[in-house]
Amino acid sequence: MTTEQKDSQQWGRVLICGGVNWANNGRKERSANSAADLLSPVILRSLCNVKVNKIITGPSANYAVVLDVHGAAYIFGKAPSPSLAESKDGIISEHAPIKISPSAVGLPEGAKFISGAAARGHILLVDDHGGVWGCGNNVVGQIGLPVTMLINDLTRVTGPWAKDPESKIIQVTAGHTFSLFLTSTGQVYAAGSSECGQLGNGKTGERLVKAGKFSYDVEVPPRLVQGFEKKKIVQISSGNQHSLALDEEGYVYAWGYAGYSRLGLQDQKDRLVPTIVPHFAGNNIASRAAEVLCGPTSSVVVDRQKMFLIAGKFKLTGDGSTGQPYTYFKPIQDITSCRIIKASCGGCTHLLTTPEGDGVMTVGFGQGCLYGELGLGPDVGKSATKPQKIEPLNGIDIIDVAGGAFFSMFLARPNDALSNLDRYPEHIESESICLQCKEDNTGEDLLECEKCDAPYHPGCLTPPLDGIPDGEWFCPPCTVQADAGPDEPFEPLPIDGPKPRKKPASSAIKSISSLVNPVVERAVTPKMGKSASPKPESVRSNTPKGTPTSKRKASESVQGSAKKQK
Ligand SMILES: [Zn+2]
Ligand SMILES: [Zn+2]
């Protein structure tokens, strides 16, 4: 995003809605599990004490990547590389995201992951030293590494940019079978399959392999995208098979597959090199572009007047559908007067924020949404052909939006409205008496931790509190954990097994930075059953060697309690 958060103080909490049944998302047989869909945005409890400054997913991604202010990455959902997950089905529960520290891939202490891209089958992360790391499907070299079926662990991707010491990678994007790499010097590199010109190097290398089957050139390592030599590109975006780039003067370039006129160039001819989009090339600087975004089969430009314009196919019926795609960039009715702050395109969703009063209004639209990914609430339809205010987010200070294939994420600054939002899961097992004094008859109200529900008397805390504080509150262990650096292990939610630690986590955890080989830090992953009610199940842990592993017994009692007992 061009509106890249330059202010490092910008952080928030992760909200999520839509399909979280990762194994069945996108499958027909999912209907039996649709009860698990989150129809309204809720606070993702497992990460609710983490200060997050980046939420990453993509229109074809059935998983999420979340970056915190300390530079660690958290991943949950259907992992692009099965080895990231512990379970056989490759699913990482949203209640126990894996945490990957920059040092786990071999980066020096203090390095941070700062951005990334999530494609259907591969993932890329960018660090603040300008390095790129990828894993997942690499069958056509889409990660930028020598062709192989799968890259198991995050592996460094290098390219010709490394020859120029001034040149660092600052942004990456990814489609089904390719990736783009933007350098700090404003050049773009591409790797993967040349199909449809998506690598922007002037050719596809198409050849007939056998009747009806073609193969295409594969570019590895990444190769320079043509036509930007005298320009400075400042932002890029990719759909499944096409890309957009924005230069510092506000000109927009499109290339790749042009089906449904998704390039906004008024025809369906694939472009093998970046092609300027006339709509944003006028002399009037205000009509040029401020940000480019790609949906799976559409392109979005936010112009310098902050208007949302779209081309291609983004609906199932009527204007903008297969039969009547937008052949050039057009505004969307009902939001023509909205100034766009943040926008994102998911599988069939479009999410955006726009100023309202002192705060923001969060808006969504999209047809064919089956999972509640618009988050409009339980009493409203799941799909919206026209932009709708996402009412459950009323009053919540949304600072970023991210649309996935079947779910959506929002980043919310803590405020009172956020504290009133439901947490997910709503209930987890916890103690019912003060963890400090072990008494419940003192007459004093109990304060419960937002994350683990651990109860304390405000007066039993150090220092003692006068009463129930406004806004969010975390117990001492969850507070310590939230401020722990990227190398500290991540504590999953005590969904069906481990209970929250009774003592500050810092005393019980070991840094993994001392471990020799790159290690993907894995938290204890509770096995999630299909039923809603947690049952005792085996709990696996791959605690680093040397750390005593205590097998904690699962408790059967799941105790629901008010968020704050007032
Ligand atoms: Zn107490
Ligand atoms: Zn807690």
Automatic annotation (TrEMBL):
**Segment Disordered: which positions?**
485-566
Annotated SMART domains: PHD
Per UniProt, the ranges with Low complexity bias are 505-514
Which ranges carry the PHD-type domain?
431-481
Keywords (alphabetical) are: Metal-binding, Repeat, Zinc, Zinc-finger
Task: Name the source's superkingdom.
Answer: Eukaryota
Q: GO CC: one term?
A: membrane
Show the ranges annotated as biased composition (Polar residues): 539-549, 556-566
Molecular function GO terms recorded: small GTPase binding; zinc ion binding
Q: Which residues cross the membrane?
A: none
Q: Entry's Gene3D superfamilies?
A: Regulator of chromosome condensation 1/beta-lactamase-inhibitor protein II, Zinc/RING finger domain, C3HC4 (zinc finger)
What the entry lists under CDD domains is as follows: PHD_RSF1
Instruction: Please report the residue spans annotated as repeat (RCC).
Output: 130-185, 186-249, 250-305, 360-414
Q: What is this protein called?
A: PHD-type domain-containing protein
Origin species, per record, is Kwoniella dendrophila CBS 6074
